[in-house]
Inverse folding.
C-alpha cells in the first residue's frame, strides 16, 4: 500500500479525468465548469507532487517507476504548463467555437501520459506513457475538425507519429533482445560490452524520441501541425510534450546507456547542430507566426540537446534550465498571439503585427522583451539559458558545438529582429480588441516580468535544478 | 566608502526610465525634464566621483562585490584611472543628447528618452564592470536600445542600417562569449582582478585574443569590418549618432586596453603587427574615402574610423605615451565627433539635407554656427590648442618610439585628416551662397548654443591644459604597462623567439 502514496498524483489525475468525463456526459452545457475544474484539479495534482519527498529517489513496482527530483520537477513544469495553457485559451476556444468538454479532458489525459513517461524507469512503462500522451495529442491537433487544416494536421501527426512509435518499439525490442530486460537499471548493469545490437536499439529509440521533440531531421511534421492546429493546441504542443520527451531523453541516455556515451554522443551532437542551424535558417522565410514558432522551437530544442550531449550533471541541469526558460518565453509569446484579435477573428501572420507599438505600447513592449529573450540577448532570461548550456558545453572542450550554436543564434536573431522591425518600425494598422481575459493578462505580465527581471536573481532556478543528479 | 556609488550611477538612469515609462503623456516636455534631471544628477555624481578618486594608485576603487551567479560569477564593479574618464564622458554627453532632442525627435519623444537613459545605464556598466561576464552583459545589452533608436527614429534606410548594426556586432561578440566561458574553465574565474594576478596560460592566449579581437574590431570599428558604422551613423537620429560616436566606439578601445593587453600580453605582442597594419589601413583608407563623401554625416563617420585607427595604433604601441594618447584621443574624439554630429544636426533640422552640395556660404547667414563649427573642425584635424592635438601627438610619439615606419605612415593620416575636414568646412561654410533656401535659416538657438559651447569649452580647456586628464590616467597606465612587461618577461619570451 505504501507505494500508492507516492503515485497519488497520477492516481488523482486519472480519477479526475473519469470524474470530469462523467460530469460532462450527465450535465448539459458544462464546458465552462469542466474547464475551470480541470485547472483546479491540475493544481491540486501539482500540490500532491510537492508532497512527495524531495531528497531521495524512490522506485516502485519492481523498479519500473521512479520518483526522484528530476521527475518531480519535470512533472511540476508539465502541470504548470498545462494549467497555463488551459487558463489562457478559454476565450480563444469560445471564439473558435470549439469550447467543448473534451478539450480539457484530453489535455489532462495527455498530461497523465507525460507524467508516466517522466517517471518511467522501464521501456514498457515509458512506451505506455508515450502512447497515452500521443493519442490525446492526435485528437487535440485535429480538434477544430470543421477546418481542413486542423484535420490535416491531426492526420499528418498521427501517421508520422505512429511510424516513429513503431521505430521506437522496434528499438525497445532490440534492446530487450540483447540485454534480457526492459528495466533501465538492469539494462545498465547487464551490459557486458558495447554490443552492436544495443547500439542499433539506441539509434531506433533516439529516432523515435527525436521525432517527439521535433529535432532535425525528424522535424517535418512540426511546421504543418503547429500551423494547422488551433492556436491553443499549438501552445500546448510547443511547450508541454517537450518537457516530458526531454526527461525521457535524459533518463534513457544517462541511466542505462551512460557507459555507451561514445556511441550516442555523436548522434545527439548531430541532432543538436542540425536543429540549431536548420531551425534558424528555415524560420527566416516564414510569415505565419505559428509556423515561425515551430521552426524556432526546433532550434531551441537544438540548444537543449546540446546541453544533453555533454555527458555531465551540469549539462543535464543546463538543459533543464533551458527548457524551463523556454516554456516561460513561449507562454509569453502565445499570450501575445491570443491578444491579436479583431472582431472575433484571430490573426497570425507577421504582417498583422505591423505598427503594433503605436496602438498597443504595452503589448509591443512585452513582445519586444520576449523576442529579444528568444534571440538570447542579455540581460534577458533567454541569454542565461544559452549561457548555462554553453558553459557546460565548453567545460568538455566541445568548442565546435559551442561556436556553431552561438553562430546560429546570430542567424536566429535575424528573424526575431524582423518581427521587432514590423512591430516597431512599420506603419500602423487597425487596432486590436482589448477585452482580454484576466488570465491572459496575468500570464503575459508574469512571463514578461520573469524574463526581464531574471538577471536580478539568476541563481534561484539553477539552485532548484542543481539538486538533480542523474549520473 | 560603503555607499555603492557606482551601482547608483548605473541604476539611476534606469530608475528615471522606469519613471518615464509609467508617465501618462507621450510627447510633453515634462518627460524631457525628468530625463534631463536624472542624467544631470548622474553627471554631478560622476564629477563627485572624480573628486573622490585617488589618482595615485592603480588599484580599482569604489569596488562592489556581490554574489550573483552563485559560485561562479560575482557582480563586481570598480574603476581605475583608465575607466573613470569614460564614465564622466558618458554622463556628460547624455544630458546634452537629451537637450538636443528638442528639434530632432518629433514622434514618440518619451520612448526615445527611455531608450537614451537605458543606454546610459548600460554604457556606464560596461566601463565599471570588473568581471568578464558582467562586462559582456552590459556590452551586449546596449544593442537593444541602439537598435531601436536607429530603427524607430532613423532616416530612410534605417531598417537596413539597424539590422546591419545589430547583426555585425552580435556576430563579433558571440565569439567573445565563447572566449569568456573558456577563460572561466581555464583559469577558474572571470574576475578581472584575479585574472590579472593569475595570468592565462600561454597556449590558449592566441585564440582567446582573437576571439576578443573579433568583437572589439567590429565595435571599434576597424577595417575591414567598419562598414556598419557609416550606415548606422547616417541613418541614426542626431542624438543616436552622438551616442554611437562618442561612447559606443570607445567601448572597444577600452576593451583592448583592459582585456587584450591586460589578460593576453603574449598574444598582444604576437598580434601587434596585425593591429598596426589594420590601423594604418583604417587611417589611410578611411581618410581617402572620407575625402570622396558627399554626405556630411558619412564623412564624419569615416573620419571616426580613421580616428579610431589612431586609437588602436596607440594602444598597441604599449608605451606610456601611446596608451595615454589613445585614451585622451578617445575622450577628445568623444567630445569632438559628438559636436560635429550635432553641428550637422543643426543644419539638417533646418534644411533636411545632409548633402554637402546643398550648402555653401553658411557663414553669412549663420556666423555663430560657423565659428563653433570651425572650432570643432580644427579640433578634429588635431590643431594644437585643441584636445585632438594632445591625443594624436602622444600617439605618434609612442609610435615613433616603437616603429618608425608605422609612425611615418600614420602621420600621413593627420595630413589627410586636415584635408577632408578643411575641405568639408570650406564647401559648407564658405563659398557663394547659391541655395536660396539657406537665406531664411536662423542662426543657433539658445539650446543649440548651450550644447555646442559646453562641448567647445572642454575641447579648448584640455587642449591647453591636459594635465588633469593625464594625472588621472598616468599611474594606471604605468602599472598596466609594468604588468604587461612583467608577464611578457615571465612567460612569453621563449614563445616570442
Amino acid at each position: 500500500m505504501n507505494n500508492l502514496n507516492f503515485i497519488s498524483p497520477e492516481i488523482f489525475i486519472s480519477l479526475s479525468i473519469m470524474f470530469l468525463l462523467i460530469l460532462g456526459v450527465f450535465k448539459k452545457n458544462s464546458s465552462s465548469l469542466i474547464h475551470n475544474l480541470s485547472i483546479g484539479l491540475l493544481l491540486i495534482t501539482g500540490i500532491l507532487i510537492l508532497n512527495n519527498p524531495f531528497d531521495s529517489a524512490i522506485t516502485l513496482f519492481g523498479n519500473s517507476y521512479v520518483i526522484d527530483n528530476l521527475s518531480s520537477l519535470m512533472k511540476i513544469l508539465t502541470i504548470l504548463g498545462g494549467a497555463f495553457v488551459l487558463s489562457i485559451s478559454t476565450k480563444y476556444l469560445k471564439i473558435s467555437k470549439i469550447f467543448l468538454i473534451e478539450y480539457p479532458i484530453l489535455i489532462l489525459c495527455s498530461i497523465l501520459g507525460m507524467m508516466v513517461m517522466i517517471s518511467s524507469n522501464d521501456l514498457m512503462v515509458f512506451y505506455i506513457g508515450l502512447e497515452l500522451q500521443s493519442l490525446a495529442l492526435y485528437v487535440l491537433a485535429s480538434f477544430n475538425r470543421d477546418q481542413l487544416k486542423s484535420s490535416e494536421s491531426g492526420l499528418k501527426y498521427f501517421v508520422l507519429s505512429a511510424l516513429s512509435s513503431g521505430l521506437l518499439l522496434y528499438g525497445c525490442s532490440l534492446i530487450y533482445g540483447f540485454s534480457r530486460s526492459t528495466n533501465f537499471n538492469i539494462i545498465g548493469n547487464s551490459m557486458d560490452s558495447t554490443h552492436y545490437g544495443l547500439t542499433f536499439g539506441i539509434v531506433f529509440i533516439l529516432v523515435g524520441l527525436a521525432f517527439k521533440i521535433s529535432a532535425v531531421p525528424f522535424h517535418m511534421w512540426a511546421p504543418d501541425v503547429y500551423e494547422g492546429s488551433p492556436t491553443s493546441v499549438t501552445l500546448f504542443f510547443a511547450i508541454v510534450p517537450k518537457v516530458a520527451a526531454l526527461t525521457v531523453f535524459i533518463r534513457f541516455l544517462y541511466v542505462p546507456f551512460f557507459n555507451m556515451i561514445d556511441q550516442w554522443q555523436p548522434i545527439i551532437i548531430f541532432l543538436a547542430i542540425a536543429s540549431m542551424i536548420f531551425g534558424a535558417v528555415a524560420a527566416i522565410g516564414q510569415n505565419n507566426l505559428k509556423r515561425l514558432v515551430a521552426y524556432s522551437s526546433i532550434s531551441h530544442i537544438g540548444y537543449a540537446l546540446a546541453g544533453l550531449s555533454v555527458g555531465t550533471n551540469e549539462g543535464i541541469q543546463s538543459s533543464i534550465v533551458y527548457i524551463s526558460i523556454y516554456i516561460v518565453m513561449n507562454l509569453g509569446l502565445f499570450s501575445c498571439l491570443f491578444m491579436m484579435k479583431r472582431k472575433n477573428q484571430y490573426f497570425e501572420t507577421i504582417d498583422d503585427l505591423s505598427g503594433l507599438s503605436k496602438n498597443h505600447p504595452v503589448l509591443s513592449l512585452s513582445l519586444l522583451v520576449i523576442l529579444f529573450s528568444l534571440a538570447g540577448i542579455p540581460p534577458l532570461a533567454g541569454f542565461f539559458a544559452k549561457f548555462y548550456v554553453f558553459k557546460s558545453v565548453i567545460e568538455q572542450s566541445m568548442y565546435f558545438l559551442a561556436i556553431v550554436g552561438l553562430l546560429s543564434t546570430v542567424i536566429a536573431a535575424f528573424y526575431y529582429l524582423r518581427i521587432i522591425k514590423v512591430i516597431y518600425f512599420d506603419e500602423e494598422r487597425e487596432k486590436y480588441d482589448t477585452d482580454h481575459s484576466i488570465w491572459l493578462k496575468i500570464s503575459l505580465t508574469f512571463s514578461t516580468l520573469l524574463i526581464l527581471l531574471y538577471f536580478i536573481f539568476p541563481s534561484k532556478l539553477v539552485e532548484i535544478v542543481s539538486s538533480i543528479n542523474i549520473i | 566608502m560603503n555607499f555603492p556609488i557606482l551601482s547608483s550611477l548605473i541604476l539611476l538612469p534606469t530608475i528615471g526610465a522606469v519613471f518615464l515609462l509609467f508617465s501618462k503623456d507621450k510627447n510633453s516636455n515634462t518627460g524631457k525634464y525628468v530625463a534631463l534631471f536624472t542624467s544631470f544628477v548622474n553627471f554631478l555624481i560622476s564629477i563627485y566621483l572624480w573628486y573622490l578618486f585617488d589618482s595615485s594608485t592603480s588599484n580599482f576603487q569604489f569596488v562592489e562585490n556581490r554574489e550573483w551567479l552563485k559560485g561562479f560569477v560575482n557582480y563586481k564593479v570598480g574603476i581605475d584611472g583608465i575607466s573613470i574618464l569614460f564614465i564622466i564622458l558618458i554622463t556628460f554627453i547624455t544630458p546634452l543628447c537629451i537637450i538636443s532632442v528638442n528639434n530632432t525627435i518629433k514622434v514618440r519623444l518619451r520612448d526615445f528618452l527611455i531608450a537614451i537613459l537605458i543606454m546610459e545605464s548600460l554604457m556606464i556598466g560596461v566601463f565599471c564592470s570588473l568581471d568578464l561576464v558582467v562586462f559582456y552583459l552590459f556590452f551586449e545589452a546596449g544593442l537593444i536600445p541602439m537598435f531601436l533608436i536607429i530603427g524607430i527614429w532613423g532616416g530612410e534606410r534605417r531598417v537596413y542600417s539597424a539590422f546591419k548594426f545589430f547583426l555585425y556586432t552580435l556576430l563579433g561578440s558571440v565569439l567573445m562569449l565563447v572566449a569568456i566561458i573558456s577563460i572561466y574553465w581555464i583559469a577558474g574565474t572571470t574576475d578581472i582582478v584575479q585574472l590579472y594576478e593569475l595570468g592565462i596560460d600561454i597556449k590558449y592566449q592566441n585564440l582567446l585574443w582573437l576571439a576578443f579581437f573579433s568583437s572589439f574590431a567590429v565595435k571599434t570599428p576597424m577595417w575591414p569590418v567598419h562598414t556598419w558604422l557609416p550606415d548606422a551613423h547616417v541613418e541614426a537620429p542626431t542624438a543616436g549618432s552622438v551616442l554611437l560616436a562618442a561612447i559606443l566606439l570607445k567601448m572597444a578601445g577600452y576593451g583592448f586596453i583592459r582585456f587584450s593587453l591586460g589578460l593576453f600580453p603574449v598574444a598582444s605582442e604576437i598580434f601587434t603587427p596585425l593591429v598596426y597594419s589594420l590601423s594604418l589601413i583604417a587611417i589611410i583608407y578611411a581618410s581617402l574615402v572620407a575625402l570622396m563623401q558627399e554626405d556630411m554625416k558619412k564623412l564624419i563617420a569615416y573620419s571616426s574610423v580613421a580616428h579610431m585607427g589612431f586609437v588602436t595604433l596607440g594602444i598597441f604601441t604599449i608605451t606610456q605615451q601611446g596608451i595615454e594618447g589613445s585614451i585622451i584621443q578617445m575622450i577628445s574624439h568623444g567630445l569632438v565627433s559628438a559636436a560635429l554630429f550635432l553641428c550637422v544636426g543643426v543644419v539638417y533640422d533646418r534644411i533636411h539635407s545632409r548633402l554637402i552640395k546643398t550648402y555653401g556660404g553658411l557663414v553669412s547667414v549663420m556666423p555663430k554656427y560657423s565659428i563653433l563649427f570651425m572650432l570643432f573642425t580644427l579640433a578634429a584635424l588635431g590643431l594644437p590648442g585643441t584636445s585632438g592635438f594632445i591625443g594624436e601627438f602622444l600617439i605618434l610619439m609612442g609610435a615613433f618610439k616603437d616603429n618608425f615606419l608605422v609612425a611615418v605612415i600614420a602621420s600621413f593620416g593627420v595630413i589627410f585628416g586636415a584635408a577632408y575636414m578643411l575641405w568639408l568646412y570650406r564647401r559648407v561654410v564658405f563659398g557663394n551662397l547659391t541655395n536660396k533656401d539657406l537665406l531664411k535659416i536662423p542662426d543657433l538657438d539658445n539650446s543649440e548654443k548651450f550644447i555646442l559651447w559646453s562641448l567647445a569649452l572642454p575641447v579648448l580647456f584640455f587642449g591647453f591644459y591636459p594635465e588633469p586628464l593625464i594625472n588621472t590616467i598616468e599611474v594606471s597606465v604605468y602599472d598596466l604597462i609594468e604588468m604587461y612587461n612583467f608577464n611578457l618577461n615571465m612567460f612569453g619570451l621563449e614563445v616570442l623567439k
Chain B has a mean pLDDT of 86. The beta strands of chain B are 61-69, 73-79.
